Amino acid sequence: MPPSRRPDGPVANPVIPGFHPDPSVCRVGDDYYLACSSFEYFPGVPLFHSRDLVHWTQIGNVLDRPEQLRLPASMPSSGGIYAPTLRHHDGRFWLIVTNCSEGGGNLIVTATDPAGPWSDPVRAPGVPGIDPDLVWDEDGTCWCTVAGVSQVRIDPSTGQTYGTPHRLWSGAPGAKAPEAPHLYRIGGYWYLLIAEGGTERCHGVSIARGRTPAGPFEPCPANPVLTHRGTDRPVQNTGHADLVQGPDGSWWMVLLGVRPGGGTPGWHVLGRETFLAPVTWVDDWPVVGEVTLTLPESPWPLFPGPVEEHRDDFELAALRPSWISLRDRPAEHCTTKERPGWLTLRARGGSLDEPDAVFVGRRQQHAYCRARTLVDAAEGSGGLAVRLDERHHYTIEASGTRVRVVARVGSLRTVVAEESVPAGPVVLAVTVTEPPSPHGPCTGPDVVSLGVEQPDGTVTELATLDGRYLSTEVAGGFTGRVIGMYAATGAVHFDWFDYEPADG
Predict the structure, then answer these.
(1) Which of 5, 210, 324, 349 is the Cys-Cys partner for 356 at CB 3.0 to 4.6 Å?
(2) pLDDT in tens, 330-350
């Protein structure tokens, strides 16, 4: 166990930055575990561990085998894996999640060790809709509640449901998208927590309570208990929450939010991130504290955990759990074993415009950052990419002695710049920085520069592009930026990848 210590300066919020939406958390003794949505990326459902609710370390991915996760090429981006619920019951971890692709549906997996391996999925065809939740009452009966908000009794070990799903409570009258239900027994009540208003700027959290898990439910008179709609706060789209007790018995809420940047209407590029907020109880109702960019001083010891290495030399037999790929990752297209100390990608699909492109990336987790990789493209073409989806990405691609920058924005695909380079491996670089001053109402959130690093460490920039076109407000969808390596043709080898934050 790492020693407890106070970090230097305030603790940053979000506690898990970057594209980590729909957090679900559970506590087991002194340990906390948290799972997030992963959509079109493989492996699916990143899983994190913490001892203090503040510092989180990714320990694996729940759906890390083809037997657990099938995402066909026909599935559009922002399809796939939606909104898991993670719980611990009777000595096991249980996770229920929706695969929103053909042949998917609601799935249940279990593990005795949250780091894995997790079981093959049990299908629950009687569970309708998305955002499923599991809870057990005092006599061991398990209830599954889904977006809508409806509920059905279930045997989670078999996926068998009993009876017809019945409606519970759907939040404020007329509010759209009642979803993300979580049900808890706290004190003398059962509490039903939901999100409503949609996952955009009107997102919010509401709650109701009843004496049984099946209701009837009385709405909180102060609903929504959390929303930032109509405010100028730096964190927006707050919602899709889960409740948990801190080490001292106090209550906290994990939730998603975004950090828009630039002028009007504001663009968020990192996706929906996991934030933490304090909760107090007044008259048996939760009162949620402010969601800020720094957290109040913790009343319990902190365990910052290991510092993430910014460089990966691909010397391990398996990739780190933070690396993700598009829809699948077959060994014949992605391996660290062909050339020791290198990552080899073998192309299919032709470019990142294609849904089956061979890509290995990591979530962009900082507003400003730099990513670099040493690429050997003697046997093909490929390089470094900043990706939001098939229709929105910037790439710098090497092929033989040529390097070019390609911008894909909607239906437009343009070669922005092209340059000759010496034969042999080349270092490609992407830098995300603040837009130049003066800022105005039309200023974008950031600028993305793509270039070639020279032997002396200087970077020759080939293009500097407006970052707003790689934002959710432009592209739509539910994900955030992912920065990584890809192969467009043939075999492309990568000696190392380096990601460094530039904003602390």
Answers:
(1) 349
(2) 999 999 999 999 999 999 978
Phi-psi region of 174 (alpha: psi -120 to 50; beta: other; left: phi over 0): left
Residue 207: both structure tokens together: 């709650």
Distance CA 474, CA 477 (A): 9
Per DSSP, 475 falls in state H
Nearest in space to 403 (alpha carbons), one of 424, 386, 385, 417: 417
CB 386 within 8 A of CB 370: no
Candidate list 52, 64, 179, 397, residue with the active-site label:
179
**What is the three-state SS of 163-188?**
EEEEECCCCCCCCCCCEEEEEEEECC
Candidates 48, 124, 45; CA nearest to 80 is 45
The number of CA neighbours under 13 Å toward the Cβ of 224 is: 22
Question: What Cα–Cα distance (Å) separates residue 352 from each residue in 325, 409, 464?
Answer: 12, 12, 19
CB 205 within 8 Å of CB 181? no
Place of tokens 């539910």: 478
SS3 for 261? strand
How far, in Å, are 72, 100, 109, 121, 129 from residue 67 at the CA level?
13, 16, 12, 8, 22
Asked about 155 being catalytic, the answer comes back as no
SS3 category, 473: helix
User: What strands, in cross-sheet order, belong to the sheet with 80-89?
Assistant: 80-89, 92-100, 105-111, 122-123
- For residues 298, 501, 14, 2, the Cα torsion angle rounded to the nearest 10 degrees is -40
CA 38 – CA 47 distance, rounded (Å): 11
411: number of Cβ within 10 Å: 6
Structure tokens at 226: 């959390």
All residue ranges of the chain with pLDDT < 70 are 1-9, 503-504
22 is catalytic: yes
Q: Which are the contacts of 340, defined by CB distance < 8 A and separation ≥ 6? A: 315
Over residues 112-150, the pLDDT tens digits come to 999 999 999 999 999 999 999 999 999 999 999 999 999
